[in-house]
């Protein structure tokens, strides 16, 4: 009689190898998903973290913010502060009232910028800013500045906008600033495509209520 070969079935070791392979694939996929989720979360956190870092350290010429004037008296040492103005993508005319002033270190100073909407319709912009030399950012302190809010100008409107600032007295104590004679404060206005809605006063009806 011819020999009958017994049917071969998967060996237990092969099944174990298949299971191990599937388990490894599942683990790798889980790790990849976690990394992607972590990167997405980091991308959303990057901008606020960068802004906080710049404000804290003065990195990249970012100025500091204070609510009050310094408690000490101004120093005898002065520094020239120049004011720069730029427009990017807006139909505005934007310029400082003074191009340069001499400032006593530690003295609170108020200067004004003028901006005019030269178009025939309302437009909204917001200013970015920095100071140079970039290392001076941690000493240049603003008390009030138009750059912190969106600016909406009607057609043909002109607005005077103040900047209240001082150069911190610790600027003079840093030997790296011994050769710094000039500081430039620079603003650039960019368009705001979707301005933040203004709150409706309590005495005014909300025009959207009837449409909801």
UniProtKB/TrEMBL annotation:
Q: Which GO terms describe its biological process?
A: respiratory chain complex IV assembly
Cellular location(s): Cell inner membrane
The domain of life is Bacteria
UniProt key word Protein biosynthesis: no
GO molecular-function annotation terms? copper ion binding
Record keywords: Cell inner membrane, Cell membrane, Copper, Membrane, Signal-anchor, Transmembrane, Transmembrane helix
Give residue spans on the Cytoplasmic membrane side.
1-23
Q: Which residues lie on this side of the membrane: Periplasmic?
A: 47-212
Provide the membrane topology annotation. Single-pass type II membrane protein
| Record GO cellular component, one term | plasma membrane
The role this protein plays is: Exerts its effect at some terminal stage of cytochrome c oxidase synthesis, probably by being involved in the insertion of the copper B into subunit I.
What name does UniProt use for this protein?
Cytochrome c oxidase assembly protein CtaG
Q: What is the lineage of its organism?
A: Bacteria, Pseudomonadati, Pseudomonadota, Alphaproteobacteria, Hyphomicrobiales
Q: Which gene encodes it?
A: ctaG
């Amino acid at each position: 009689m011819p020999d009958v070969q017994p049917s071969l079935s998967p060996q237990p070791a092969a099944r174990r190898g298949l299971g191990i392979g599937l388990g490894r694939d599942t683990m790798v996929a889980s790790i990849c998903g976690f990394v992607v989720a972590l990167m997405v979360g980091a991308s959303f956190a990057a901008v606020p973290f960068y802004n906080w870092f710049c404000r804290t350290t003065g990195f990249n010429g970012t100025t500091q913010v204070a609510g009050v004037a310094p408690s000490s008296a101004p120093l005898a040492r002065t520094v020239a502060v120049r004011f720069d103005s730029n427009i990017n993508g807006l139909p505005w005319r934007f310029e400082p009232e003074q191009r340069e002033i001499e400032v006593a270190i530690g003295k609170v100073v108020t200067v004004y910028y003028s901006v005019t909407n030269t178009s025939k319709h309302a437009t909204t912009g917001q200013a970015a800013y920095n100071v140079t030399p970039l290392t001076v950012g941690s000493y240049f302190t603003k008390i009030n500045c138009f750059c912190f809010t969106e600016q909406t100008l009607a057609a043909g409107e002109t607005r005077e906008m103040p900047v209240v600032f001082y150069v911190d007295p610790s600027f003079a104590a840093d030997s790296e600033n011994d050769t710094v004679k000039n500081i430039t404060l620079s603003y650039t206005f960019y368009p705001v495509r979707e301005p933040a809605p203004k709150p409706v006063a309590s005495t005014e009806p909300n025009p959207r209520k009837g449409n909801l």
